[in-house]
Amino acid sequence: MKLHAVLSLIRDSVSSVVFPDVCYFCGSIKDSKESVICAECRDSIRSVPMPFCSVCGLPLPALENSASDFCGSCLSHPPVYDKARYGVYYEQQAREAITKFKFNASLFNVRPITELLIEAFNRHYADDKLDAILPIPVHQRRLINRGFNQVVTLAKKLSDATSIPLDRTTLVKIRNTDPQVGLPRSKRIMNLKNVFRISCPEKIANRRILIIDDVSTTGTTVSEAAKTVKKAGADYVAILVLALRSKKGG
Ligand SMILES: [Zn+2]
Ligand SMILES: [Zn+2]
Fold it and tell me: Rounded to 5, what percent of the chain is helix, strand, coil?
């Protein structure tokens, strides 16, 4: 390896310690010490904008927005959960940061996505009273292969920032599923049927629960988890997904 490549590797790995004022994405000097993302990069990360459906949180088509706060789907088939919201679109820097973290769960890589998740929480849930945060689980087999569930790490960071207790054991995935990406909606729903279980219903009954996931396309997985949580007697079930994947690829 050439000397400059070695130096570049060393610089990258220690930059979070030695150069804390450098933007995670573009490497430029940033003004704020609170954020690892510079103002310019944050501006280019698109948050899911208004108007969105007040139940499922998905963007409303322009035609629907003046008539109602609800999308057609929530009007005709109200979801079992009470409220779902998305942080940013799964594209460009957001996608880069989520992917990097999935393959290397370093403290350095968790910082930008934690910031985006906390920002989304503050935007959508600052006034909600919530008793517990439940991350979307992965099946035991996948956990053994990968070694960790990135959603648990994210949920823990949100729990630390909000003081809402993290519950990582009550919502369990009992069946390994094929990846949801690319499947038609009907197949996605079938794929997920009875895939979650509640290990300890007393921890859910009459409580206000927030379910966390990192990426979603239409919320099928989180909806199925919410159904399981609601059936176990939760009083209120809310969902927060860090990134919304566009249906047209991305
Ligand atoms: Zn930047
Ligand atoms: Zn809706």
Answer: 40, 15, 45
Ligand 1 center from residue 30 Cα (angstroms): 7
Strands (DSSP E) contained in the chain are 83-89, 132-135, 171-173, 196-198, 208-216, 236-244
Which ligand places an atom closest to the C-alpha of 30? 1
Average the pLDDT over 204-220 and give the result: 93
Q: Which ligand number lies closest to the CA of residue 71?
A: 2
Q: How far, in Å, from the CA of 23 to the mean position of ligand 1?
A: 5
Give the number of whichever ligand sits closest to the CA of residue 31: 1
All domains of the chain in start order, with CATH: 1-44 (no CATH), 46-244 (3.40.50.2020)
Percentage of the chain exceeding pLDDT 70:
85
How far does the centroid of ligand 1 lie from the alpha carbon of residue 178, in Å?
35
Distance CA 97, CA 44 (A): 14
Taking the centre of ligand 1 as the mean of its atom positions, its distance from the CA of residue 43, in whole angstroms, is 9
pLDDT digits 0-9 by tens, 14-41: 554 544 689 999 999 988 888 999 999 9
Average pLDDT value for residue range 66-95: 91
